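Attaching the record inline, Q. Sequence:
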Amino acid sequence: MSKRKIPQLVVERAEEQGNYFFLSVLEFRNETYLVIVDNITEDGIGAYVLDFAQQEGINLRQLISIATCWFYRGSYRYPLSFEFSRLGLAHLTNRIYKNFELAHVTRLIGNDFRYEIAAPPKIKRRRVSMIPAGVEVKLKRTAPTPISRD
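Structure, as predicted:
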């Protein structure tokens, strides 16, 4: 069985400065979807499909307003899924999230949001050391106390 050649993803930038600059049109297996791209990896494109929002009972205006705030505030730093998780809406928006296999995506019109999230975050932890019984502990003052004039 021969390996099928994966076609190159064609990304067409939307150059107009419109209100909904974060929206994209994605062509997957000869069907088009209106999406907000969450992240593009080597394997696929994770996106929120706005065509499914009304079927799932999600308020589309509220979804668009959250995505607009994310686009102007943090789209250059983190994906939209982080914003939904931060707001506590991940359990609602996961119903319209779809992962499109890159081998079958032929066209993407709009922004392609790519984030390097593969590396796990580095967390430095310090060991807790017990204070010996005979050592006196003096706490530092954080704010000066007001001087009373008598």
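Residues 10-109 form one domain. The chain has a mean pLDDT of 82.

More tomorrow.
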